[in-house]
Specification:
Strand order of the largest sheet: 1-2
Strand content: 5-15%
CATH class: Mainly Alpha
Oligomer: single chain
Number of strands: 2
Shape: globular
Distance between the termini: 19 Å
CATH topology: 434 Repressor (Amino-terminal Domain)
Length: about 80
């Protein structure tokens, strides 16, 4: 499974909020959001801070998608 944070970026656009404003509000550095934008794993505490600032739940800022590279075999 891979993680996509496209919902977070869309939410920022919908709320007319700049990424820099989110950094300041959540007290995090820009590298954290850059990692998420590139689909890298995010820290759970960071997700909670973003949800708190944006007034939502984790499912509102991220989604899981099947990764064709990693298929799990169930016996």
């Amino acid at each position: 499974m891979s993680v996509s944070y496209n919902k977070l970026l869309k939410l920022l656009i919908d709320k007319n909020m700049m990424k820099g404003e989110l950094y300041k509000a959540a007290s995090v550095g820009p590298s954290s959001l850059a990692k998420m934008k590139n689909g890298e794993n995010g820290n759970t505490d960071l997700l909670v801070m973003f949800c708190r600032e944006l007034g939502g739940e984790p499912g509102g800022i991220m989604e899981l998608s099947p990764d064709n590279q990693q298929k799990m075999k169930v016996r």
